[in-house]
Amino acid sequence: MRTSLQHGLSRKQLIKLDFSMFARNTFSMPLRFMRNSPLALILLILNACSGMVDVPSANFNSRIDYLVIHATSENFEQSLRLLTQPSENSVSSHYLIPTHDDASYPRNRLQIYRLVPEHERAWHAGLSYWGEETGLNDRSIGIEIVNEFKCEGTTNPIEETNPEDINCDFRGYDEEQIARVVALTTDILSRYPTINPIDVVGHSDIAILRRSDPGPNFPWKVLYEAGVGAWYDDETKQQYQQNFAQKMPAIASIQEALNQLGYLVEVSGRFDRQTRYALRAMQLHYRSEDYSGNVDVESAAIIWALLEKYRPQKMVLL
User: Fold this and answer.
1) Domains of the chain, residue spans
2) HEC letters along the chain
3) Which of 2, 27, 189, 202 is within CB 3.0–4.6 Å of 6 for a Cys-Cys bond?
4) Active-site residue (options: 144, 159, 266, 298)
5) Whole-number Å distance between alpha carbons of 3 and 187
6) How far out from the chain centre does Cα 94 lie?
7) pLDDT score at 11
């Protein structure tokens, strides 16, 4: 009997023919497909032998429950270096959004910089707390916005300071930069629709003793009107304001309300330092005209209006 080689087939052609015959007998796939794509056959064999069976479970949730917005306090060049290069205190974020008003930004058009994939853990939140969750790096996406604000405080330990000891020079945000923020956050929320609007927060919300960014000039209401984040209903706020003008809630109730909203506050019944810092953080976000950290009728009304809208189940605890 004459061999295949004797019939004029080269070794390369013979191997190709063997692949095709194996495919015909094993997978019943068109011979012309396997003759032209032996790699496809190899992939099919590996897939068939992998032993992997997919059975989707309904018992899971997203790792991402929070969206945290920061301001860098540095120009673009320094911000990019700090967020991407190792240092003694390395930090990072998932995204960086530059501004046109920055000589260190090298492009003519504003572009969003992706620094860490969303499924990875960026180091942006640090020591943080929100809504009974600590260490928000594990559960959040962080966005840094280039803004050269500066804050100075005293040399005393933070436990011995008050909000008025912090002196900040807050800068504004340009419209195109905010348009990029809106576009990015809208896109993120389309992928993580279970994020509660009240859990779209600033760095100052989750680190009340350490941080003041993105500051009182950040247009949270503009984001809300674009479908991103939380804001109170004016009518509800006014109703609470009328009620509280007659009788303010006790300090313990205000502390509990701040805590239920998400802020780190221990219910002490005293108008103490932690309560002032929590009020300052809330005011930076929702009442930027006055963020002194003092308790007043309007601030209490905003807290209650936000709770009623976004955490109604918590109202029974007040």
Assistant:
1) 11-49, 66-225, 234-317
2) CCCCCCCCCCHHHHHHHHHHHHHHHHCCCCHHHHHHCHHHHHHHHHHHHCCCCCCCCCCCCCCCCEEEEEECCCCHHHHHHHHHCCCCCCCCCCEEECCCCCCCCCCCCCCCEECCCCCCCCCCCCCCEECCEECHHHHEEEEEECCCCEEECCCCCHHHCCHHHCEEECCCCCHHHHHHHHHHHHHHHHHCCCCCHHHEEEHHHHCCCCCCCCCCCCCHHHHHHCCCCCCCCHHHHHHHHHHHHHCCCCHHHHHHHHHHHCCCCCCCCCCCHHHHHHHHHHHHHHCCCCCCCCCCHHHHHHHHHHHHHHCHHHHHHC
3) 2
4) 144
5) 63
6) 8
7) 40
Confidence (pLDDT) at 4: 41
Indicate whether 32 pLDDT > 70: no
Query: What pLDDT digit, counting tens, does each position of 197-210 carry?
Result: 999 999 999 999 99
Which tokens is 99 given? 């501004």
**144 has catalytic annotation:** yes
CATH, domain 66-225, list 3.40.1260.10, 3.40.190.10, 3.40.80.10, 3.65.10.10: 3.40.80.10
Confidence class of residue 42 from pLDDT cuts 50, 70 and 90? low
Q: What pLDDT does residue 67 have?
A: 98
Same CATH topology for 66-225 and 234-317?
Answer: no
The domain made up of 234-317 has a fold known as Muramoyl-pentapeptide Carboxypeptidase; domain 1 (1.10.101)
- Per-residue pLDDT, 159: 73
| Structure token digits, residue 205 | 């919300």
Q: Is the pLDDT of residue 288 over 60?
A: yes
